[in-house]
Each structure stands twice: as structure tokens, then as C-alpha cells.
DNA sequence: TTGTACGCGTTATCAA
DNA sequence: TTGATAACGCGTACAA
């Protein structure tokens, strides 16, 4: 049976109230009393019961984090950043995977509410809106990361996707490409739109036409989705000489499809990814991509949540933070060749 | 303020005891009373407080999971399996990353003890032994996954690494290779030893000599470690025609080094990885590797823990489970060629 | 079938 | 500077 402050109180011949105070450095406790109690606590191997404390203080010092999958190459790093920031502040982390299943999401929100988490960080869900409402009804603050919904009614952290694809498109233009395509993800919402917009803006600014035929979309953001979109692309009579992909996995799928069809990357077609997942440096050819500062995004989300918890005013205006990444040039893109 | 069973009791004109029972389908409650109370609870949006419940029942229905890094390609999948099994049983999951820092590990163990988790699953640490002792002192059961320590004093789940590398080596022998090397990881303990042993056993059984010169080791299990070990290998006058690597990341590093040095994989040298991390299918050439059933390992660890929690006898003998994976043949290995 | 009274381990209020 | 007492929300032995 675990040691409690009452056990310590008995040995120290004081009240358990005094023990409670001594262990938390309450100012109104004599130094020597505190030291004596502290010593006894150490000897007994006392470990405070945060469950009981939470019941009284109405704060658990636990934050919930919801992701789609735990082994997601993107959000894995984000969660790493979250965890780092929370651990530094003495918070613990409940992690749960929704697997894009609304029922499961509900169950998770429910479980987290029952455990009285102090807040929830939701990483990229479509249906975040509804869940956030559920949480708000219960007074649990939420912070969203790269949320797909169009409206933004809660504190959120986003990567500046439009800026990213704008920069990437300019880079490809700088390499002499004029026929540049975009391989999107039909299953993503806001993110895909933002990336498409940045691409279009860069083309327009450079005086290049936005060819509708060069804008394709795969059914998902996996290698498979990239492969399908690429197959679509190969049907074109006049093909683009460079392609900007929704993300790295799609770029990898696109490259495989190209190579299988007998094309060389980047000689016959330049391919650019997005996100800079760690895998992207190890494929052949290594992927040119746009680095999202994933750990930083996670840290920022965690800190935003902690700030919210500090602020007493419950209904502060939602805070929105936009972070920018940087372009990483590798070998999957090259200057346009004559044959192109 | 959250709704409590007392609020419900007042409205339903019963005692909070009755509410408590009604909400948990206690047999000794009249059906209609239960239904009435349930309805009120729903209308009020009652969410039980598991913190208070845990204080009374001395069980939190929360399990702790410790990994080195959250975005680890291997343990990410293991945790996915753990989470799936726990979610199904209504358990929640505390996740923390140790980053191989003993101080941090201590802090994590401490935090988990304070939160009164029902058990802890530790994924691959060197110093697990000490932490397990700390937990046991506190009566918190632990389950280890692919633990690196040699002694096994707690319930553990392992992948049968010796079997894996034995199978892989036999596969290479079957392709006609006779000069087969092993690129190990000097930083791993038991796992590296087991894989080395399987390799040696397969060679011995086939009547092939175990050349000490063909056994190299990198300083870590990353691409960098594989690259360094490979550089070492390239110095040899007589080189192996096939290499078994400690894991996939080292194999990738080895391949890059070979390719940079002007060798072709698999024509000039076959390379085999281990683990089958998702990345391994996307590199060029796609990696022949040994698949560890990562999700299954996670599920098994979770279920083992749940069984332990069910069993009332605290000091049951530690349970040990060995899971086997399967060989995945891809394009990084080939039949030995004449020039070799 | 339902209710009373108490305890889980901690913090907070008030009084000494 | 310290202590007695109540409270947090829930579960349960015992009584009715």
C-alpha cells in the first residue's frame, strides 16, 4: 500500500495538513519542520497521488492528444514536439489514435473528458469542428494543428502551406520549367486548397498559364494516391516537365510510376514533394521538398495550450499561429532539359 | 461546473448511491428507476469523473508507455498496436519519450507513478532493469518489449531475432552466396547478439566458414551507422557478395555508400535489412528484409499487461512471449553472379 | 430495492 | 506557524 501524507504525519507527529504544506514549500511552514518532513517523506518513498490532488484542485496536469495514426510519419514528429514541451512543464500526455473513424473519435473525446484532461490538442481531423464543440460544452479547451476545416473557431497552429507551394513553384520556374503540374490530394481539405493556391499564384506572377489539364488529384495522400494521379498524368499528349506533389508520399508514388513507365527523374520530369518527412532523404533520387517545422509546430501547439490554461479568462479570443518552413533542394528536381 | 451524480440524484429524487448504481447497471436496481436515472443523466450531459472513481477503486484504467522517441519508425507501429488493444478494453494511454536520457526516464517513471497508472509498458531501453525495480517497489507491473538487457525478470514480449537472421542467412545461401557478411550495431545489446547468432548458426549448418573479417559493426542503428560499417567493409581485399544488416536503416546507409562508391545493388552486392519498416519498400532498390509483426507485438504486450492486471495474484511468474516474423524478398538481393 | 455514512488522498478555509 | 475540519466525486458496507 502506498505511503500517504497521513502516514508521514503520524511519524513526524504533525497534522497531515502540515505535511501537505511542507511538501509543497508553503511559505508559512517553519524551515526546519519542512526539512524534517521532507526527509521522512524521502525515507518512506512517498509519491504524491496526483489523482487525489486533481480531484481537489480540478486540474489534472494532463493533456490529451488526438492523431489519426500514431505511426504517422508527419504527426509523429509533431507529437514529439508536443511531448517535449509538455514534459518540460510537468504535464503528461494522453495519446489516442482516431483512425479517421468518427465513432472512435467520439469515444476518445469521451474518455478524455472522463479523465478530466486539462485540454486537448487535435492533429488534423476533418470533423474536428463537431468534436471541438463537444469539448467546449464541457469546458475543455482545444488547440488544432493543421486542421482541415475551413472555419477556424478555436486556437490553431498551421503551417503556411500557400507560402510553401508558392516558393516551390517559383523554384521550379527558376529552373526553367514552364509546364508545371500539381498532383493534389482529393481527400484533404484546406491543406490541399492552400497548396494549390500558392502554386497558382506563383504561376500567375510569372506570367505562366495555369493549365487545368496539369492539375490532377489522387484519392489519398499515400504513395498509391500519387501513383494513380501520375498514371492520369501520363495520358496527356503534352506532359508537364515538372510536378509539384501534395506531399512526399505522393511524390514517391509518382516517381515509382514514372520509373516503371521508363522515364527518368529528374531528367525527363522533375518531381517535388512537400513536408520533408524523414523518408524523403532516403529515396532514389532524394526528394526535393518543402520542410515543415514539425517539432516546432508541436511545441507551439503545446505552448499555446499552456498559455490558454494559464489565462484565467475562459473566453479569450482564439489564437492562430502560422509557421513557415523552408525549401529543401535535393536531386529529384533539375533544370529543364532541351528534350522537354 | 460539471454535472455530478449528486445533481442527478436531486433531480431524480433518489440518493446518489442509487444513481451510482443505476449508471453502472447494478443488478439490485429496479429497471424503471435505472432507466429514469439514465435518461436524466443523458439530458444533463453527465460525464463520470474517472479521477474520483480511481481514487476510490485504486485503479485508473490508464497504462503508461515509454518509448525512446515517439516518431520512431519501429516503435511507432508497436505503440499503434498497444493503443488499439487498450482502446478496445477501455484503457487510456500515457505516452512519454525517454530520448535515451536516464534522468528523463526517471522523471517519466515518477510522473507515471504519481498519476497511479495501472501498469507500464517499456519499449526497448538499455537501463530498463533499474526502472522496472523502481516500479516494482511501487507495485506497478511492467511489461518489456524487445528489451536489450540480458536478464529477463519481468514479463516481456520479444521478436525472435535469432530465427529471423537465421532465415535471412539461409535465404542468401539459397541464392548461391558463400561470402556473406554481417553489419551489426555496436550500440544494441541483446538484439544484435541474437541476430548475429542466427547468422552464425545458418552459416555453420550450411558448412560455410564464419569469417571474422566479414563481421562488422556500426556505432548506431541509423543510416549513418550502416554507412560507416560499409566503408569498413569496402577496405577488405576479398569482399562479401551479400550482407545481412542489423536493421533497415543501416541497410539503407550501406546501400548509399555502395552506390556512391560505384557498386550496384544487388548486382555487385546483395543487401538485406531487418524489421521491415514502412520506408523499406520505397527505397531503391526496395529492400529485402525480415518483417517483424510490430502491431502484433504491441497488441501482445498490451494483452499481457491486461492479463496481469486481471490476475489477482500479484507475484505471478513473469510471462515471456516470443513472436516470429517472416522474410520479405524484394529487389536488394539477387542470385550471386559470376563476377562475384 | 433503496438509503446512510464513511473513506479514498489531497488541498483549502478558518481558527488557534 | 500549525491544526481541525470540510470538501472534491465516487463506490460500498451496512442498515432499512
Features:
alpha/beta; DNA-binding; Rossmann fold; homodimer; 12 helices; 340 residues; 3 domains; 12 strands
Radius of gyration of chain A over all CA atoms, rounded? 26 Å
Largest interface, C-beta within 8 A:
A-B, 52 and 52 residues
**Superfamily at the CATH H level of the largest domain in chain A?**
Response regulator
Do you know the CATH architecture of the largest domain in chain A? 3-Layer(aba) Sandwich
Query: Strands across the major sheet of chain A, in which order?
Result: 2-1-3-4-5-11
Please mark out the parts of chain A with pLDDT under 50 across 5 or more consecutive residues, or reply none.
Answer: none
Class per helix and strand makeup of chain A: alpha/beta
By CATH, the topology of the largest domain in chain A is Rossmann fold
Strand proportion of chain A, as a percent range, falls in 15-25%
- Helix % of chain A is 40-55%
Please give the count of helices of chain A. 12
Quote the distance from N terminus to C terminus of chain A: 76 Å
Report on the structure:
Two copies of one chain form a homodimer. With 340 residues, chain A is an alpha/beta fold. The first copy, chain A, folds into three domains: 5-48, no CATH class; 60-159 and 294-324, Response regulator (Rossmann fold, 3-Layer(aba) Sandwich), CATH 3.40.50.2300; 161-291, Rossmann fold. Chain A is 44% helix and 16% strand. Chain A has twelve helices and twelve strands. The first copy, chain A, has helices at 5-12, 16-23, 31-44, 50-57, 73-88, 102-114, 128-137, 161-174, 190-205, 223-234, 248-260, 294-310; strands spanning 62-67, 92-97, 119-123, 142-145, 155-159, 180-185, 215-218, 242-245, 270-272, 289-291, 320-323, 326-328. Chain A has a six-stranded parallel beta sheet, with helices on both faces. Chain A is elongated and about 90 Å long. The first copy, chain A, starts with a helix and ends in a 12-residue tail after the last strand. The mean pLDDT of chain A is 93. Chain A binds a DNA duplex (16 and 16 nucleotides) through helix 2 and helix 4.
